[in-house]
Amino acid sequence: MPVNFIKIFQDSWNFILNQRQMALFFLLLLVIDNVFFRYLLNGIDPQSEGDGSTFLMLTIAGQVVNSLLILWFLSMITFISQQKPANLSNAFAYAVKKTPIFLLLNFIIVIPFSLAAASYVATGGGSLFALPSVLIGCYLFIRLCLAPYAYVLENSTFSQALKLVWLNGSGKRILPLFLFSLLVYLLPLIITLQLAPLASSIVMTLIVATVSAAISVFTLVFTYRFYQLFIDKNILRTFQ
C-alpha cells in the first residue's frame, strides 16, 4: 500500500484532537520527566572524575524513564486504535514488560551509525573507510528504525522484529522509510537542538520542555500510523 504522509499527518492530528485528554496526560508526564532529569543533570560536569559516573547513571535512568513513558503511550494508542478497552494500568504493565528489549533494539540500530560518526569526527574524515562507514550506519538505521516498534506492536520476539522490519524495507520500499526517518528522527532533533540554548530560565525551560514533549507525542502517533500502513505483516510467511 502506498504511503501518503499527508494523510498520516492528518490522521495523527485528528487522533490527538479526539483523544486530547489522554494526549495531555502523557504530554504532562513527558514534561515532568524532561524538567526533572534536566534539573538533576544541571551543574554536573561529565568530564570530571567524580561527576562522570553520576552523569552516566542519570542519563541512562532518564532514557529508561522516557522509553517507559513512550511505550505506555504507545500501548494506549494501540488499544484505542484497535477499539480495545483502554486501561492505563494494563498499558503500563505491558510497557514495563517490553521496555528492556525495546531499549536493546534501539541501542543496536543506533550503535553502528554512532560509532561510525564518532570515528569520522575523530579522524577528521581523513580515513578511507570513515565516510562509507557513516553511510552504512545510516543505511542500517533507516532499514531497522521500526524494529523496536515491531517488537512492541506485534508482541514478537527480538529476532522476529528485526526480520520483519528488514524484509519490509527492501528495494524501493526504503524510500518511505528514509522520508519517515527524516520526519520523525532528524527534524525533531534539529528543532530540539535549536531550542535547547533557550532554556536559560525556569520559564523558558518549561516552554522548551513542553514543545519537546508535544513533538514526542505527535511523532509517536505518527509512527504508529506509518507503521500500520507500511509494514506487511504477512511478509515473514513468504520467506519461511
Question: Explain this structure to me?
Answer:
With 240 residues, the protein is mainly alpha-helical. The protein has one domain. Helix content is 80%, strand content 0%. It has helices at residues 5-18, 20-41, 49-81, 88-123, 130-144, 147-153, 158-168, 174-195, 202-230, 235-238. It starts with a helix and ends with a helix. The mean pLDDT is 90.
Topology:
Layout: H1 5-18, H2 20-41, H3 49-81, H4 88-123, H5 130-144, H6 147-153, H7 158-168, H8 174-195, H9 202-230, H10 235-238
Helix pairs in contact: 1-2, 1-9, 2-3, 2-9, 3-4, 3-9, 4-5, 4-6, 6-7, 8-9
Labels describing this entry:
10 helices, 240 residues, mainly alpha, 0% strand
Explain briefly what this protein structure is.
This protein has 240 residues and is mainly α.
Number of discrete helical segments: 10
Strand count: 0
% residues in beta strands: under 5%
Count of individual domains: 1
What percentage of residues falls in helices of 4 or more residues?
over 70%
Low-confidence stretches: none
User: What's the Cα radius of gyration?
Assistant: 19 Å
Q: What string gives the helices and strands in order? A: HHHHHHHHHH
Structural class: mainly alpha
